[in-house]
Amino acid sequence: MNEIYYLLHTTDKHYNEFNDNELKVSKIDKYQFSGVYFSLICKFNYGKEYLMSDKYFYIFPIDLLLELKNYHLNIVDYNGGITENNTYYSFNLDKGLAVLLTDTNYMNEVVFHDNISLEYCCYFSSFAQDILPKIQFKKPIRNPELSSLLPFYAFSNEDIYNGIQIKNKSSDEWFKKLALLANIDTDQSSIKILKELREKMEFLNTNRHLQKLELFKELIESKSLLPY
Fold it and tell me: Cα–Cα distances in Å, from 45 out to 51, 107, 121, 152?
């Protein structure tokens, strides 16, 4: 974990412009995941990671990754989309970091599913990539309310994503896992599963307890075949 430095958020807003003293999740739609977006800066991608050239940057501690579970990591920027070959979660973060530390040729993204308070910000400055700190930032969160927030995984934009770093398409088996997560009939095509997923995503985002999160975790961790 010593190779992981911090989470970096860039924006055009100055620290004093945030009325509620927090970074807000983006609006939910079928093209982009609703979340607060960060780049994970580490020893091996420092100075190489492509960053948005906004006015200011905010550095947050790696403790957000260690203590919270309402986020996911994409090795390649995918507008927050959750896919089979690109996405890692709080429960298999070690595997995602292992990939990230060996392949730094991409623009990664860490997406938190809820607002992030600026009280956890460790460092704030006008943006300039060549002055980014090259040290690890840690700051214990110790907030049971934050730690208990459930993640939202019932989202996919894979069929409409047209960015410059398109990964291999997820398998039909993967879409059936998403269907199980979202309580959708698995006995249908991936296209129909995606259609139903989009119809339910806003509802499930606000009712995350209705996702079958433990089953989804089990299927991801064990790479199990579907239970039928």
Answer: 11, 9, 21, 28
